[in-house]
Write a sequence for this structure.
């Protein structure tokens, strides 16, 4: 029995014992193919008088499987903890997930920020941080600069954002003199585990590049492809999203999509199979693609969704999380070390999964 099956339950009276009202029931549940998926026998005592109860509205229940997230967490737990600079964890929402990841054996955290505030947050949450290295820094920018310095010297292999603005952390990361820049474009990728989608789904860029140029998008695509390789997808199918599938000179997203596909043909983007422009439905639903007459090895089976800009990516990722029940793990790539970016609205599960993704990338040595 799997998510999406239609189950029919049949209950048949097998035996009745009138003296006490005992009833034996044969129970069978079949799926949409008529196959029995659950069978059993139930015993009950029937009431001696007719009973009427008021009809009640049953609560809505959504059943979802997140096998991909479980597999990611299991994979990350299978090695040595990765030294991680946790930048400005001055609230419970940023401190406790780092400690949870440490308890799970994923990271060896170094907490950087105002020592008294971090200690107060830990005490209020009942968390013991006496064995955790704590570096005193007066504010967010100072904590970010110190974390970047640790990464430059190789003391940490992973950065994790705390309770500071993304711009404050990334300003230190991209600093020309003392930052963590490489020749790669810095970009963000969400690894989404969508219950109704049969494979992991990568969405990029939803957090760093606001209005990327064509050159920026080429780097964004390459980062996502490299992440897909680390996740075990040998030749990821990359859908370049737009509102339509036809190249239109009034819609820049369609022009960029066509150019990116040609860049892949000429070896400027490697390791993946690109197609675009594709609308969202055509990218993830084979029936929709077929209805539109789209013949493509990518359409309907995308592993990577490349959005036109940050606004589209942010909305898409949040829709998948909040309306489709997807679990997400987010990571920034292209710097010398992976960077875990989390949102204040992220669940504890999402934060832990993001740590796991960062750990897998850091161990692979392919963050840059």
């Amino acid at each position: 029995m799997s998510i999406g099956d239609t189950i029919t339950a049949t209950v048949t009276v097998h035996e009745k014992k009138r003296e006490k009202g005992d009833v034996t029931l044969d129970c069978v549940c079949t799926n949409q193919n008529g196959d029995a998926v659950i069978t059993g026998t139930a015993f009950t005592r029937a009431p001696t008088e007719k009973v009427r109860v008021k009809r009640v509205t049953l609560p809505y229940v959504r059943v979802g499987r997140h096998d991909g997230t479980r597999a990611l967490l299991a994979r990350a737990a299978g090695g040595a903890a990765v030294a991680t600079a946790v930048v400005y964890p001055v609230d419970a929402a940023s401190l406790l997930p780092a400690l949870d990841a440490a308890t799970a054996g994923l990271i060896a955290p170094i907490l950087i920020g105002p020592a008294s505030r971090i200690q107060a947050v830990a005490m209020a949450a009942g968390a013991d941080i006496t064995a955790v290295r704590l570096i005193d820094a007066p504010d967010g920018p100072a904590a970010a600069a110190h974390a970047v310095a640790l990464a430059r010297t190789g003391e940490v292999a992973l950065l994790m954002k705390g309770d500071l603005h993304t711009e404050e952390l990334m300003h230190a990361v991209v600093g020309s003199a003392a930052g963590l820049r490489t020749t790669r474009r810095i970009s963000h990728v969400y690894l989404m585990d969508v219950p109704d989608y049969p494979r992991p789904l990568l969405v990029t860029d939803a957090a760093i590049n606001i209005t990327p140029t064509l050159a920026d998008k080429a780097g964004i695509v390459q980062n996502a492809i490299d992440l897909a390789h680390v996740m075990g997808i040998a030749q990821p199918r990359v859908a370049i999203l737009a509102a339509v599938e036809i190249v239109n000179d009034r819609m820049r997203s369609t022009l960029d999509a066509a150019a990116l596909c040609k860049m892949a043909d000429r070896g400027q983007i490697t390791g993946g199979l690109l197609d675009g422009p594709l609308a969202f439905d055509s990218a993830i639903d084979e029936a929709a693609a077929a209805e539109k007459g789209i013949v493509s090895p990518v359409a309907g089976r995308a592993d990577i969704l490349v959005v036109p800009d940050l606004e589209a990516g942010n909305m898409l990722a949040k829709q998948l999380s909040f309306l489709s029940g997807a679990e997400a793990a987010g990571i920034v790539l292209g710097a010398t070390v992976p960077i875990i970016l989390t949102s204040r609205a992220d669940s504890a599960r999402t934060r832990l999964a993001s740590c796991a993704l960062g750990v897998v990338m850091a161990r692979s040595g392919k963050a840059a």
In short: The two ends are 42 Å apart (CA to CA). The chain is about 35% helix and 25% strand. The chain has a mean pLDDT of 91. The longest strand covers residues 8-17.
